[in-house]
Amino acid sequence: MEERVTDERLQRDLEDRAEIDKTSDTMMQRIEVFNASRQPGERQLQFSEIFTQDLSSEQRDVLDTLVAEEKDVSYKALLQKIIADRDAIRILQERVAH
Fold it and tell me: Cα–Cα–Cα angle for 44, 78, 18, nearest 5°?
């Protein structure tokens, strides 16, 4: 029985890691699309900046401000999807870690 549980756990971990990779790739593509929309001198996003496990209050404020100030609805939605991707990746990573 224990071997079966281990096999099931291993399979779930592999699937979760594949989902992390897929979501990370999607998030990177969204960041690239958002950054391509910026004019010279406008703030761009970096994956590492968004994905830092413990965003400082200043980093959260920058991300919140980008979302709040974005006038183009499609890019505002894109920013919100990037944040949702980050949250989904964190949940999957926690599952794999336990």
Answer: 100
Cα 89 from Cα 83, distance rounded (Å): 10
Q: What is the mean pLDDT of residues 10-16?
A: 85
Q: Give, as one character, the DSSP assignment of residue 54.
A: S
Residue 24, classified by CB atoms within 10 Å of its CB into exposed (0-12), middle (13-18) or buried (19+), is middle
Burial class (CB in 10 A: 0-12, 13-18, 19+), 76: middle
pTM beyond 0.85: the answer is: no
- Judged by DSSP in three states, 72 sits in coil
